[in-house]
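Everyone, describe these structure tokens:
***
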Amino acid sequence: MNTRFGGLPNPKEAQSIWDDIWHLEAHHSTALEGNTLVLREVQALLDQGRAVGAKPLGEYNEVRGYADAARWVYGQALEPDGWHDGRLLTLSEVRQVHHTAMTPVWDVAPHKDATDHEGPGCFREHDIRPFSGGMTPPAWPLVPVRMQQWVDEVCQVGQRLSTGEQPDRPLTEELARLHNEFERVHPFLDGNGRTGRLVLNLILVRLGHPPVVIFKRQRDAYLTALQRADTGDYGALGELIARAMYDNLNRFIVPNVAGPARLVPLAALVSEDFTLPALRQAAQRGRLDAVQGPDGVWRSSRKAVTAYQDNKHKRRRSAG
């Protein structure tokens, strides 16, 4: 996509769309790991800094840390800084993602078995028990070498793609293989799932693709797909990634091609007149004709926003 279409718009060019993805990713990726904040609580936390509800402090910090890491990933993928050496990925970036995501929750609820050398951004110094599907991560002394090998594999894929050479399997299955290999190494004592999905998005966005969001309702399918990938079958996981890429690609494309009556995410309808929070509030209050999908995202149309704007102006004139 970078070569053919110039890549994705950066967060400054399409802030509302990136913000919408950011909210969804922070909510669903932490919910996959058991976080109980609902989407509106995540939005209040990230947009207003308000801890709505009576959840444990660690849960708010978990979402906050993930959101900070996701923001860093989006920016680092599109406008890399000193952590980047020009290749598709560096080991320092992987560790920075983990450090950013895990530090807030670690500050209030560190892993009970962690040594002083196993904090955020540091590889584990414990062996991991076999998982329910039978997969056993490598012994901890092997983790640094295995992670460097994994990063080198990622960069080799990036190098082949940059020269026009296609990978041995469809791209989404190749990404599924890389994601699964990361989880098989399980390099950190905690936070491997969150870090793995964040790093996958760093790779995707750097390749010019949209980040993916695995929804909490897909948890069972996602875990089953990872288990199948352990056996070398990357099809199911690749399909999950492909569908998630397609969904978020539409967030960027549909607003530019949709007719006035086509339902699109509210983020695509933001303008100088209406911010995303204002549209969301109008939808929740029933003043804007909108529907909320099973993914928690409100959708409306340009036609509905125009009608809402006209009615708003009429109310103001009547009040005057």
The domain at 2-255 is CATH 1.10.3290.10 (Fic-like fold). The two ends are 52 Å apart (CA to CA).
